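Lab channel / #folding
Pinned by the channel admin:
"Please post every new chain as: sequence first, then the structure tokens as a reply. Keep commentary short and put observations after the output so the thread stays searchable."

First post following the new format, from NK:
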Amino acid sequence: TYASWLLMLLLVTAALAQAPSPAVDVSAEPSHKLIFSNEFTRLFRVELAPGQSTQWHHHAHDYVVVHLSAAQVGDEPQGGPAARHTVRFGQVSLIAGGFSHRVTNQGSTPFHVLAIEILQKKPVRAGRPSQPSERGLEIGNGTSADTILDNHEVRVTETLLAPGATREKHRHRWPHLLVALSDLELHDLPQGRPASALRARTGDARWAPAGATHALMNMGRQQARFLVVDFK
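Reply from TO:
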């Protein structure tokens, strides 16, 4: 009958309205702004106003998330239950890829993150000894370097430098991103090359190749805080 046909049409329409849209690759999601890429990583900046949501999007690669704001965020994976998270400024997480989701800023403050993809995934082979984790805290005169994440793909270290303090000479074994968690006014003292100024605003990122040996002095009036994300 016409009434039955109309009811079926309404049910189908409602079901289609509730079904999630097809997920696009993260690089095609409008809120994910690509700000840097090379053979090791793609770096996306994501900013959501209160109440704003991303489109459904797919993460094919593992990635490191650096939170640049305190926020309340809803995470809705396709095919799974939604979750609500409270995040803090400077929080770092490693997230395994191979999933699609949608993110909503459910708080009253802006949501701002950097998503740092790991493009050269290194599978752990059976019978092969894994590289030991080197988690730990190094404390110097007005300095600290805290390894907060370390696995066979990446290492993330958070460094604090008091005004006038110097991180003593150290070598970078791997290529890396420096992510500023405060405004930085550093004096870079590389071995075998002239010194230079390293200035950055909170949330800026700088790429550096492997093999550099240098020291860093905080020339600013405030504590310098930054992350180094090594790609092994």
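NK: The chain has a mean pLDDT of 89.
TO: also worth noting, Residues 180 and 226 are 4 Å apart (CA to CA).
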